[in-house]
Design goal:
145 residues, 6 helices, mainly alpha, two-stranded antiparallel ribbon
Length: 145
């Protein structure tokens, strides 16, 4: 996901939604290093999301699903799933359920098909613009549709 974000963030908006924890200590505990119980309040969920945001999302802006899990239910997002929502608000790409179905390369294939001029520019110049700064003017001109 970090690579996808680095390559495409100047062309598309990204957001990660932190949904209910898949492997909390008091739930389906799969890993021995899990050190928290499933949150019961939004404040607890936000605290857990903040703790893991950099490691899990590679700089992608992060929002937190409500304790009612409305986003998780609406997008069948548990434990993790990638979506691309097109400019008209329709789902253009729906990835498989993670972890096995979590494949950023398939989301990138959709973006490449949707934005072929931007994809061509990335193929030639992309590595120069992966990083933190804003894109140069030539990037904006080359990718505008």
């Amino acid at each position: 996901m970090a690579r996808l974000f680095a390559r495409w963030r100047h062309r598309v908006d990204f957001v990660a939604v932190y949904v209910s924890e898949a492997h909390a200590r008091d739930g389906w505990r799969l890993y021995s290093d899990v050190c928290f119980d499933a949150p019961t309040t939004l404040a607890e969920r936000v605290a857990i999301a903040r703790r893991h945001a950099a490691r899990l999302h590679g700089g992608v802006p992060l929002v937190v699903d409500g304790i009612d899990n409305a986003a998780e239910a609406a997008f069948s997002a548990w434990p993790e799933r990638l979506y691309v929502v097109d400019a008209d608000g329709r789902i253009g790409f729906k990835g498989g359920l993670g972890p096995d179905g979590y494949k950023p390369e398939l989301a990138e294939a959709h973006l490449r098909k949707t934005f072929p001029r931007a994809a061509a520019f990335l193929d030639v110049f992309g590595s120069r613009y992966e990083g933190d700064g804003p894109p140069p003017n030539s990037w904006k001109m080359a990718t505008s549709s």
